[in-house]
Every structure is written in C-alpha cells, then in structure tokens.
Specification:
Number of domains: 1
Shape: globular
Low-confidence stretches: 6-45
Helix content: 25-40%
Distance between the termini: 29 Å
Radius of gyration: 19 Å
Number of helices: 12
Strand content: 5-15%
Number of strands: 4
Length: 306
C-alpha cells in the first residue's frame, strides 16, 4: 500500500470518528474529499508580479501545500515542463525531454518514503511524480526546488543536472559527488524532507528560532516564529532568511548580506501555482486532511466510544 493510500485510509477513519463529535453536517460534507481540485499549470509569470509584502518568514508554505503528492499528475508535470521557456548554454536537453535510468530504492518505513521501483530511460516528469508519490511530497515543491537550486526549468546545464536539487551541497564546498545525478538529487531531497519531518528535533523546528541572513555570521540573524513543519523543512535544507534588502524588490540582488534561497522558493511557487499558504479544510481536520506535520493522520485517542 502506498504512502498516500495509507494516508487516505487513516484520514477517512479520523473523519468518520469526528462526524460523531461535531454538530452540523455541513462541516463534514465540506471536508470529506482529501484532494483539492487541480487547476491547469499556470504559464510563466514574472516573479516581479508577486506581492513581496505577503512573504512570511515563519510560514513560507503550508503543510498541505508541501506534503500533497496529488497536487499534479504525471501528465500535468510534463505539460508544465513543456510550457516553460527553456534555453541551454551547453546543449543540455530541456527538462521536459530529459530522460535517465533510475534504480530501486527501499521502503524507508512508516511515515517515510515508500519503495521506488527503478526503470530505464524514465522521463523527468515521471521521476518527479514517482518520487512525490513515494515520499509524500508535492511535485510542485520538487519543481520549484529544481528551479530554485539550479534553474533547471529555464536554463538547464550538465552541471545543473548533476546537482539538481542542491542535495549534499554545503555552503563552503562543492557538492558531494556521491549524490550526483538527476534521479539521486530528486529522490534524496524528497527523502531528506521526509527525514526532517520524522525527526523534527533539529536546529530549525516549530517555534521561535534564530535564523541567519547569510553564511557570514557578521550579517546577523533575527528570531523567526516557525509555524509549521513544512517551513522548518525549508530552513533545515537552506538555513537562511532574506534580509530587508532582499525583500525590497523581487528579482533584485539586495546587498552583500542578502540570500534568496527561501525567498526564491516562495516567489517561484507563488508565481507558478498561486498561494503557497493553502489549507483547504477546517482547522479541526488539520492533523488529517491538511497533512499537518506531514505525518499520516492518526485517530484521536480521546474521542468517546460509540
């Protein structure tokens, strides 16, 4: 049984229990569907059109948005890639036409990545979709990560495919060659996001946390109220927040202390797919249908017996 199938079964179990405890069928009827309607991918939108005032460092993306593997089908991922304006400086293929062999990956256990069955000559869109399904991470998140880290959707290069998601790439050294390759990078990034979620006691976790502006400590830091696991995951992966200069105007360099990684994640997501802060169901269902914390839903222990 897949990660999503297990999640759906648990979600339905919790929803059934909550029906007994809630007064009013309208709330239940509005929350029985575990997947929102999927719109067609948006065309390329200039990130300058996004309102920078809406960026919240403590809530870059909602848990539902981050952990929803049903956000796009494989066909929609392929269509989205084909809609990008793509130019390569070294004759690398655009992502929509890129293919590579993949290898089997084991089931990582409950709440983590399901097994991935490798195959020859898989399209990038298929890899993204299969990894999203196996690890319970939105394919939109993976698409944005590929652009944020290596501009693979717009300016693919040989080096970009090797380092596709920036996994194993420290700030002070080149990336670890052990993790080179498009499939390795996409799978390991999703695996790492799931690992952060399974073991959340890390430097960046839900609550008030000091987050720096730059690898140079002299650039300073400020306290960020990290509000959900998805945002904590992004900071653990890219441990900096944009400073005032970076936030002054989208698409500009800011100053010598500006970093743009998490800001660019939010900008690309917002420009391509709309609001990254989507929780489509009533708050009473957060732990179940909103993928709160990215964990499979658990039936509440204190619900009275029938």
């Amino acid at each position: 049984m897949s990660f999503l199938e297990r999640h759906r079964l648990s979600a339905l179990a919790t929803a059934a229990v909550l029906v007994v405890t809630l007064s009013g069928a309208a709330l239940i009827n509005g929350a029985v569907r575990a997947e929102p309607a999927i719109a067609e991918p948006a065309p390329m939108i200039a990130t300058e059109a996004v309102d920078m005032a809406e960026f919240e460092p403590g809530r870059i993306v909602s848990d539902f948005t981050f952990f929803n593997p049903d956000a796009m089908t494989e066909a929609e991922v392929q269509s989205f890639l084909q809609s990008r304006s793509c130019t390569s400086s070294d004759d690398s293929p655009c992502l929509w036409e890129y293919r590579t062999d993949t290898v089997d990956q084991p089931d990582a256990g409950a709440g983590h990545c399901d097994a991935y069955v490798g195959a020859e000559h898989e399209r990038a869109s298929r890899i993204i979709s299969k990894v999203a399904e196996a690890c319970g991470i939105s394919p939109r998140v993976l698409l944005v990560l590929l652009q944020k880290e290596q501009s693979l959707l717009s300016r693919p290069t040989i080096d970009g495919y090797l380092r596709a998601t920036g996994y194993g790439c420290p700030d002070t050294a080149d990336c670890d060659a052990e993790f080179f390759g498009f499939f390795n990078q996409v799978y390991r990034a999703a695996w790492q996001f799931r690992q952060y979620t399974q073991e959340p006691d890390r430097t960046y976790q839900i609550g008030d946390v000091e987050v720096g502006y730059n690898p140079d400590a002299a650039c300073g830091a400020s306290t960020v109220d990290i509000q959900n696991q998805a945002t904590a995951n992004l900071y653990n992966y890219t441990p900096y927040q944009p400073n005032e200069a970076a936030l002054a105007e989208a698409g500009q360099d800011g100053d010598g202390c500006s970093t743009h990684g998490n800001l660019n994640f939010w900008l690309f997501y917002s420009a391509w797919f709309g609001s990254a802060d989507t929780d489509p169901y009533p708050s009473v269902f957060d732990s179940c249908l909103n993928y709160a914390g990215g964990q499979p839903c658990r039936v509440p222990e204190l619900v009275p017996a029938l």
